[in-house]
Amino acid sequence: MAINLLHFFSERYQEVIEVLEQVAYGKVEERLIFLLRKLADPLEGDGDWYPLPVSKTHRDLAGMIASTRETVTLLLNKLRQENIVRIDNNRIWIYLDETRLKEFNIC
Question: I need a surface site. Which of 12, 55, 64, 70 has the fewest CB within 10 A?
C-alpha cells in the first residue's frame, strides 16, 4: 500500500512540475492548449474531439494560464479557424489527435 501511495504522489508531483514549467516558460498559446488538453474529458470523447467541463468560461481559462479573457477569446477563435477547437452547445471541444497537433507545432 505504501508503494502505491508513493507512486500516486510521484505522479501528482510530476503533473505539478509540468504545469509550473508551462506557466513559467510557455507562450500564452502553448499554455492555453496545454490547459485545454489537461481539462479535456476523456470519457466523453467523440472520435478525437474531447469536451471541456461545461462550467469553464473564457475568464476561468484566462485565470488558469495567467492571461486575460480577451487574449483567451482571441486565441480560441484562432484555434477554431485552425480546426483545433470547436464550440458546440456552449461547450468547448478540443481535437486531440497528436499527429494533427504536431502539424501546428502544438504538442
Answer: 55
Residue with cell 481539462: 39
pLDDT digits (tens, 9 = 90+) for 32-74: 888 888 888 888 888 889 998 887 889 999 998 888 999 999 9
Q: 95: closest CA among 26, 47, 61, 38?
A: 47
**Cα–Cα distance for residue pair 101/95, rounded to 1 Å:** 8
From the list 2, 1, 76, the residue with the least C-alpha distance to 32 is: 76
Asked if residues 41 and 50 have their Cβ atoms less than 8 Å apart, the reply is: yes
Rounded CA separation 28/96 (Å): 19
- The residue with greater pLDDT, 103 or 37, is 37
